[in-house]
Amino acid sequence: MSMSYEPRQFQDQPPRYSRTADLLIVLGRMGLLGQGSAPEREDLRHGLDAALAADPADLARGGEVLGRAVEEALASLCGDESFLLQDGTDEYLLAEALASLDHLVFLEEGLAGQEAGKALGETLAELAQRVLAEVTGHAARLIPHNGFRLDMVAMLPAGQLHRFPWYTLWADVPEDALERLAAPESARAHAVGADEDLPADLRMALLQDLSADRPLARELRMRRRIMAGVVRAFAQHKSLGMLRLAREANERFAVPDSVPEDGLAAAAMHAWTRPPASEGERHERLFLYALCGPFLEARLRLDLFEQVEAFLRDPDAAEQRPGSPLAVLAAWMRGEVGDDQLSATAFAVWDARLARAAQAGQGAEVTARQFQDHVRAAAAQPIRKTEAGEPTPSFIAKLRQTLATLLPRPALRAATAGLLVAVLAGSVLLTMHLSAPTAPIGTLRLLAAGEEGQFRGGAPRIIEQSGEVMLSGERFQVRFTLEEPAHAYVFFRDAQGEVSTLFAGRVEAGEHVLPSPGESYVLDEETGSERVVLVLAAKEQKKLEDIEALLHGGEVEAIAERHRGVSVREIAFSHK
């Protein structure tokens, strides 16, 4: 770092600024920080005198190079495009910028009493005043680096601290102060804990300072909007909170010692040896797979959590067994229990299952991929149950039971059953002919982000229903899921009623992203009326021009009526 700077010519390298400027910086640092012995300082002075005598203009050249470095540092630290306004600041860029400011102070100190550098000293003094003003107005940007800055403050004499505002201003506040300041009221409990909110006087002081640093204030407002969207998403979709909990819990809970590492997948796959007896039991297993299971990708975990959440939100879902993982999960969703209780309950059941399966031994080796396929199959096999808990008999089984009661003779019973099945089959075929098969659309949502927003690794705003507001310049993606393969048609209708076709073609079941993952659409500058995104799906291919004609006429409802077998979903939003 700059506090231990050595002139480069001592290492047979070109000077950083110039030979004499580098020597003066070292002398200034030694004098200001009380470093170096008297003989060392004397040797440096002799070298400096020789360098000045050999090239009197060398010092001025070095001063110009340093001046340009300081200007670049100010732009990097205080400019509107400062890297400090971005997440994941480059520590090397920060160190280089602060080193240039340090060298300005050290060169000023080294020039004190040097008649040859009097003119340069006056120029540097003016530059130092501007640096002081610029840094003072933008020092809050450095708060996330307070740990490093406090280490540097500890190296400076108390009487010289005023000359290094880039280390001292706002250095005594928490490194996450800006993050807390950006957090909306509803997010503080999630982001920093209710007991860790900023003191009122510090919050007010930071807000006053931000009035002079508009780029930083703008950045914090954008983060606040993004965080508010994240909080809304977590509140509306408990599955996102479950996914967060899964990541945290799997770092805390170790695999039981009785389960060998090479047998983990087999134990997980055979944690249950019989099929689930009810939908509640099946969803409890899916929850334990998603929260505790090994080798599962985040996307699969989230799919499982969404399925479990939907089951628990169903008003017709049966009451859960008290104390069971699913009952505790339901209480967690209502805010009645915390993360620790939920994860402890779930892992206690899961670890016991793992240990029992490992002890029993399962023979054939199981790969992680096989376990993943096993979990996917479990998620795709719902159980139809009666109120008594027995599997719901098929229609044919019910028919046989009824005929057994009414017709005691087997031959008559079989003939009657055959006739009824034939009649019913004809009725079904007629119904299928009149009502074309429909391809259900699972979900439709828009992911919206600002001009600098990210759709990977970031937290865009999620829009799932009509009535939201989007701003000019915002970027958005269209994401929809199909429950089975179908022909999909995606349209965007603007304020004038003009319809653009975003996609038309056959797609598989699952989630689809438009325009593509990592890319997005951008709203134009023209504001005003409502915009609409529509997704249509059909098992059978439709004429695109027929559907577009109905959309141009604003007859969204008519599509499903005139085109049997078409599933329609839409999201309308205002544009400001």
TrEMBL record:
Xref: InterPro entries: DUF4384
Domain DUF4384: 472-539
Top-level taxonomic group: Bacteria
Name the record gives this protein: DUF4384 domain-containing protein
Organism: Desulfocurvibacter africanus subsp. africanus str. Walvis Bay
